[in-house]
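QA checklist item 7 of 12: single-chain prediction sanity check.
[x] sequence parsed
[x] length recorded as 355
[x] structure emitted
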Amino acid sequence: MKRLQAFLVDRIGLSDSVAYLQKKTVPVHNQTFWYYWGGISLFCFLIQVVTGVLLMIYYRPGPESYESVRQITNEIHFGWLIRSVHNWSATAFLVSVFVHMFSVFFMKAYRRPREVGWWSGILLLLLGLTFGFSGYLLPMDELAYFATKVGLEIPNSIPLIGPPIANLLRGGLEVGEYTVQRFFALHAVILPLLYLPLLMLHLWMVQKHGNALPPSEEQKPLEKRRAMPFFPNFLAKDLAMWLITLNVIALIAALFPWQLGPPADPLTPAPEGIKPEWYFMSSFSTLKILGNIFPGATGEAIGMTLFTLGLVLWTLIPLFDNDRANGRRSRRVTYFGIFVITVLLVTTFWGYFKA
């Protein structure tokens, strides 16, 4: 083992990495718990990669997409479990990403010099949402088919560029086998090629600048701040959180297997209560509310304008709140974050229980 270690250190240059890990520390305070959510997001993404590769072995995009998923679910040994873990870990991934983003926001971890980490995280979230949307159609069952039709109405409502984008995603005017092939290429090839380099950049920014202190800890003198070594203390706790996450996903996947509905039939009417997935429910509900107030294309245009404006403001927060001494500006940003969370939660629950 010593000879192997010496070989790796000499050939790969691991000594610098080992020395860095040994001196790297993580702040310890009342909000240290939120540091683990970035690692949980990464672990859920790794589960997605492993289970996705296993599903690709048997999945056949196109006219046989439903039949291939049926075989995976009912005939392939443990295929139902792999598919269930893949779907539930996708939900866990997006939940952990949202928790991670809002924890970074309220801990003011987007401030100088961490702006690039914030912006890369926003792009990773948008790509993650696209992962979820593109993967939802692939079974081509009834629920996936009609939910995708509803979901495509969101980009279709964008003035001027919306209809061409929706037609490009569909491969025509209606959702069909060409849509499945395009969504599969997007889900399994294009998005990973975009996601992985951006993920590497995001992780590098985190390692370069370290974990940010919340404003309450920044006010303390240096001698009163506590920290733990990243290796092995924080890493061991991070791995423990990964193990807990794996157990929770496996338990849910076993107790609540992901169901496969009847095959999609474009000639039948959509079942009542068809809605997009939970991570698009807020947008769907907002468009529906505005559509009731401003009928026709006007409500859709107002909704997409508000979404775009809100996303731009959320992305540019580091440029507005980058001065630790400006407490008034910092409080305004905090109120803005509370407003965003409230709107997301209210419109999401409204979409499930009222729409």
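[x] summary fact logged: The chain has a mean pLDDT of 90.
[ ] second reviewer sign-off
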